[in-house]
Design goal:
Structural class: alpha/beta
Bound molecules: flavin-adenine dinucleotide
Number of strands: 18
Helix content: 25-40%
Largest sheet: 8 strands, mixed
Strand content: 25-35%
Order of helices and strands: HEHEEHHHEHEEEHEEEEEEEEHHEEEH
């Protein structure tokens, strides 16, 4: 199909900045570019009908790290690096809440919990014994102790009788957050072209030529915000990681409220609209889950259902309403990659399981790479 003169003139000519990916990073990159360069023509190319990676698929935890995760991070990173990771998550969440407003994204500060399997003495004791040290480490950020241990009041089974609690964690409505972000970006005049996958790009001295499945055009600068799909555009440090989720139908008198990590964060669940949303289990089949293909597998979905029955909702009747998956971008290090790739091309990728927290900041940092 040949595009019309009007289509070419209006959407694809004199483009200053092109962003690939309309996830939380791509959209925040657009916001920051618009703020810095109000007159710039900005186009976002998105392969999905909706954003189709992780930003519309996630669990909506507004969190910055469970006790066991921070202890584990300290095995691979220095204290300064761990503090920096946590600071970035907190700053990212602050930006997200400031840009959109707590009411819009339904931010609720219900606290975060870490549950320990009854059989996992090692992890439980390590968290119990290291709690004070971690609280001390985090003191400069929070000016108070973050983690405490509380008695299991939610009726969970097969777990230790107390869990760790973090009062600073919250949860958002992921759909509302992304809807508001998309509206905000479009209201500023940024053009989002959906169902438009970038196939390749090439650079000459002053521009970048972009080839999509429908058309080709040129842009002054290109920003890659494709996270789990980054390898397809030759960013080899990022591996895809599929994450599967399920949600129950509404449950009468559901008392479980908050965000919960279980078994070192391999599983996570929360309340939403009187339902339980539960995800995780990637470690049961890491190799199969290292994919950019959406889908659910029996091994993981069965385990999630079993956990609901035996551990999370042991004496409560429930039905599964819906299942889905999303694609994250992970790598050897937890730090996101925000860098210039070549003269006119930049990327902000590898957000792991923390993109709700750091996505807004990474998007901003990505936009700030351009002079
Ligand atoms: C199930 C699940 C649960 C999660 N839970 C949480 C949580 O509770 N808290 C938290 O902080 N984080 C969570 N995360 C992680 C978080 O969602 C991600 O880190 C974050 O959304 C990444 O945002 P992004 O913009 O970098 O990537 P994405 O949202 O994946 O956006 C990348 C976009 O690029 C598009 N794209 C890719 N290739 C191309 C191409 N060639 N051409 C055009 N477009 C392309 C994709 O369609 C996609 O829309 C979860 C993730 C998943 C999957």
């Amino acid at each position: 199909m040949n595009l019309s003169y009007w289509e070419i003139q209006t959407w694809l000519s004199n483009v200053d900045y092109t962003i690939i990916g309309s996830g939380i990073v791509g959209l925040n990159c657009a916001l920051q570019l618009k703020k810095r360069f109000p007159k710039a023509k900005i186009v976002i190319l998105e392969k999905g009908i909706l954003p189709q990676g992780a930003s519309t698929k996630n669990a909506g935890f507004a969190c910055f790290g469970s006790l066991s995760e921070i202890i584990d991070d300290l095995k691979q990173h220095s204290e300064a690096e761990v503090l920096e990771l946590i600071r970035k998550r907190i700053n990212g969440l602050k930006i997200l809440r400031e840009i959109l407003g707590d009411k819009t994204i339904n931010y609720q500060n219900l606290g975060g919990y870490e549950l320990f399997l009854q059989s996992d003495d090692t992890l439980y004791n390590s968290c119990l014994n290291t709690k004070d040290k971690i609280n001390q480490l985090l003191y400069p950020i929070f000016n108070t102790g973050v983690f405490s241990f509380k008695t299991n009041n939610f009726g969970f089974k097969n777990i230790k009788s107390d869990y760790s609690f973090n009062p600073f964690e919250g949860q958002i409505d992921t759909g509302k957050m992304m809807d508001a972000l998309l509206n905000k970006v479009q209201s500023l005049g940024v053009k989002i072209l959906n169902n438009t996958a970038i196939e390749a790009f090439s650079e000459d001295t002053s521009t970048v030529k972009i080839k999509t499945k429908h058309f080709e055009f040129s842009t002054q600068k290109l920003f890659i915000a494709t996270n789990g799909f980054a390898k397809q555009l030759k960013i080899s440090e990022v591996k895809p990681a599929r994450a599967q989720v399920l949600i129950t139908k509404p449950i009468e008198n559901l008392h479980v409220k908050g965000t919960f990590h279980l078994d070192e964060g391999y599983y996570y669940f929360r309340n939403i609209d009187h339902r339980i949303l539960l995800g995780g289990g990637r470690h049961l089949d890491f190799r199969t889950e290292e994919t950019t293909a959406f889908g659910e597998t029996r091994i993981i979905q069965n385990k999630l259902e079993e956990l609901l029955k035996t551990t999370i909702l042991p004496n409560i009747a429930f039905e599964i309403d819906h299942r889905w998956s999303g694609i994250m971008g992970v790598g050897k290090q937890k730090k996101a990659i925000v860098k210039q790739i070549s003269n006119h091309v930049f990327c902000g990728v590898r957000l792991g399981g923390m993109g709700v927290a750091i996505g807004s900041l990474v998007g901003r940092e990505l936009a700030d790479l351009v002079e």
